[in-house]
Specification:
The structure is a single chain. By secondary structure, the chain is of the alpha+beta class. About 65% of the residues lie in helices and about 10% in strands.
Length: about 300
């Protein structure tokens, strides 16, 4: 079994105050950005728009079609190539135009003009109304909030309340900062990005639970040790597993980001950011907050704790 970072004795908790300041600065920057800009940039799924399905006279790569659209200054179009026997068909999603003009003629001219010898035909044209977009946005928000509430209940039942608050804070931290990075880089929030945020929430809590399991074991076996020392021992003992798992997921997400194409680009970018912060937060948000809650609770009982 592959192992690394075995036998480490790093004083992680000694630096938790600096981590608090770092995380607080990122969360504050994200919140200020979202307030100033009226929220993130929503994709067609949430704002309403046009969905076109076209067929090309020959099988093309998505990059070629996108290049033809970009050359004609038709940007902001989400392009998805169908798989299997329908690789000559593409789905195009775009924001609703204020003048209500049919976008297909411009798209047809751009592709046929940019790719000589290629002709396209329209297979489907649908409109996503703003009302439907608002409903999807509300459901996506409730999905994220519901996952956080479920995590709070699960960790509270399985462990103790002091652990539950740290776990939920870590998940909230990871999702919010990932959303902030997406907003800072001008990326749109679509249904695939919401899927990435929920995946990040699941990954983050999974990593945190592994650390919490070891903390619970060590807190029983090392009753005479200081709380800070117990935390450091537990985190060091799970460090190898955390790094190997995180590195595997991170490299997979990077591969999707580089070679996955335009359709998966925002999803994989969110995963790259989320996995990085998820690994960091399991130590310096979830475990650190659990430690401070543990110390505060014991002090309120008159127990000397550090």
């Amino acid at each position: 079994m592959l192992q690394m970072l075995i036998g480490t004795d790093i004083s992680f908790m000694k630096y938790r105050r600096f981590a608090y300041m770092f995380s607080s600065a990122l969360v504050l920057a994200t919140l200020v950005w979202l307030v100033v800009h009226g929220g993130p940039r929503y994709g067609v799924d949430f704002t309403g728009g046009e969905l076109l399905q076209i067929r090309t006279s020959e099988v093309l790569t998505a990059d070629k079609v996108r290049g033809a659209l970009d050359a004609a200054a038709l940007r902001g179009i989400e392009l998805q190539q169908l798989a299997g026997e329908h690789r000559d068909e593409f789905l195009l999603r775009m924001q609703e135009q204020g003048d209500k003009t049919d976008p297909f003629p411009a798209i047809k001219q751009a592709i046929e003009g940019g790719l000589p010898g290629v002709t396209i035909e329209l297979r489907r044209n649908e409109s996503v109304g703003p009302k439907v977009g608002r409903e999807l946005r509300q459901k996506a928000l409730w999905a994220v909030l519901g996952s956080l509430a479920g995590i709070l209940v699960y960790v509270g039942v399985r462990y103790e309340f002091k652990f539950a608050m740290g776990a939920v804070a870590a998940v909230f931290h990871d999702v919010l900062i990932t959303l902030g990075v997406l907003s800072f880089t001008g990326r749109e929030v679509s249904l695939t990005v919401i899927a990435a945020l929920l995946t990040i929430a699941g990954y983050s809590i999974n990593d945190t639970i592994v650390v919490f399991d070891r903390i619970r074991e060590r807190s029983k076996a090392l009753r005479k040790e200081k709380h800070t020392r117990v935390m450091d021992i537990a985190v060091n003992e799970t460090l190898s597993r955390t790094v190997i798992t995180s590195l595997t997921v991170f490299l997979t997400a990077v591969a999707l980001l580089v070679w996955g194409g335009e359709v998966l680009r925002d999803f994989s970018f969110a995963m790259v950011v989320g996995v990085g912060f998820g690994t960091y937060s399991s130590v310096y948000v979830a475990s650190a907050l659990a430690l401070d809650s543990w110390i505060r609770i014991d002090r309120s009982k008159g127990i000397k704790a550090e």
